[in-house]
Request: fold
Amino acid sequence: MSGRQQPQGFIGGIGLTHLQVYEQRPAPDGVMSGCAHVHAISDEAYYVISGTGAVELHDLELGFRSVPLARGSYVQFPPGTLHRSVSTGGLEVLALMSNAGLAEHGDARIYFGREVDEASTEFERLVALPGTRGLEGALERRDASVRAYLRLLDLWRSHRAAYRVELARFIALHRSRVATRRAEFERIVTQGPGQWLRVTLDRLEVPIAGESGSARQDESETKLGMCGTLKQFHGLTPV
Reply:
């Protein structure tokens, strides 16, 4: 066991990102928000650094609810939860993702509604907008998502059975797409949280030294994410 490879990255194989929810202009419902989207495999959590807002959650068990967020708030939600981040005043959060790397490799899918899901070319065009049109493209993508999301909210208010059918359709669609990439996802999970688990279990028998480290968010690159602008934490510097 002394030769066990040390786990890489942050504790437990998580990803860390500084998120500022889009506030450049409101979405079609007049709210400052990101895209509605879902993860197939990964859990997610928010710790609020500053500002106020909410995260809107949808799952097949409880349906829709809005969780208020303020400085010092913490909320977590499992895969299969459709969610939208909302800012009512400068919302910034530290976003924690299980299975670091999966979100960037297809674990997340934006909600654009059934019509777009059935038109792969249009779906791919919308997803790619930040890469082709920068910030304005990211906001256009957000707006397309929110327009579809508002129809889902209308179903929640007026026709709960239809709401659950549509939510179940979307979640099942994404899970079916992810299932085709099992080998790729399994490699990422094995090298991340899987390695942390193996070393932790070994420590129950023999003390195994690790390495101390520190990290800062990447100030050199701001990414246009689904929820807002992102500054990711990369790697650890030995200390």
User: Anything to note?
Assistant: The radius of gyration is 19 Å. Residues 13-207 form a domain with the Jelly Rolls fold (CATH 2.60.120.10). The first strand starts at residue 15 and ends at 21. The longest helix spans residues 129-158.
